[in-house]
Input
Amino acid sequence: MSSDSVILLETVNFAAEKHRNQRRKDAEQTPYITHPIGVARILSHEGGITDIEVLQAALLHDTVEDTDTSIGELQAVFGQTVARLVQEVTDDKALSKEETKRQQVEYAPHASHQAKLVKLADKLYNLRDINRCTPTGWTAGRVQEYFVWSAQVVRGLRGTNPALEGHLEELFKQRGVEL
Ligand code: NDP
Ligand code: ZN
Output
């Protein structure tokens, strides 16, 4: 039986290899892997989460959406729970961008508690990232639109983790967006 630290290293290594050629949408083209690591770190450091499956799902949360990874592969390597959590936070690639955004709002309240935690940390990371540095090519209007949509998703995730929700609420308040 592997220790939690060994499992987490396996997981972060898997994610790093999968995202190895990807970059964030910022001017510095930050390596993409900083995002999943940061999402897991928000959960542990700010959310007080020690549930290893949640931390693993955070590390892997964009592998299926953004790389050649399949849910079956995650199930074989990391087990059913982690694979199911990643599935819960993965957008359906067959849908249009608009439909995907609508689905996230609709699905949020129905997600499992563990998946809601990953979603909250993902939104918190991305909003902080946008505040740190506007993604390449985004107008102020598009940034505001992103905050408004994120608030609609986060509304459906409330009652999950007071610390993370508090930080999100503050970010929305700074933009004059009602949660
Ligand atoms: P998004 O608008 O969803 O792009 C944001 C996503 O990119 C984040 O959720 C995050 O997802 C990822 N990301 C990567 N780098 C960063 C970063 N530095 N900071 C924050 N997030 C980052 O997707 P699209 O670019 O495909 O745009 C689609 C939508 O945008 C459409 O619905 C359209 O309506 C709207 N749009 C609006 C425009 C406007 O001017 N108002 C213009 C064009 C499109 P992850 O967690 O997966 O990494
Ligand atoms: Zn993400």
